[in-house]
Design brief:
It is built from 3 helices and no strands. It has 113 residues and is mostly helical.
Length: 113
């Protein structure tokens, strides 16, 4: 919408006459319908009583029970135990280091030859 300060006097006069026409038409609508032509209020949210919620919950549980009646009961899943972490002993690490050093020594000696 334009800023009111930037409108010319002719534009302001035209806007005022349109506003008057709208007011006159609203009066005519009120005379015809007997109520003001204002927008309707938004519907308020309906609240449900606790007893109604309980009835709905009971009915839903009954439906589920009926649906599950023909099916065999599922076995609960057994929790899977994680295997214990294995640790290498100091002796094992020493053997691995010695073997790796021997491999590299062999590779280096082959390059020199």
């Amino acid at each position: 919408m334009n800023n009111l300060m930037s409108l010319t006097p002719a534009q302001l006069n035209k806007a005022a006459s349109i506003k008057e026409k709208i007011a006159k038409l609203e009066k005519q609508l009120t005379a015809i319908f007997g109520t003001p032509a204002a927008p309707a209020k938004p519907a308020t949210k309906r609240k449900m009583s606790a007893s109604a919620r309980a009835k709905i919950a009971a009915a839903q549980k009954a439906r589920w029970a009926k649906a599950k009646a023909g099916k065999p009961a599922a076995k609960p899943a057994k929790p899977v135990a994680k295997p214990a972490k294995r640790k290498i002993s100091a002796e094992g690490i020493a053997r691995i280091k010695a073997a790796q050093k021997a491999r590299w020594a062999k590779i280096k000696s082959e390059k020199k030859a």
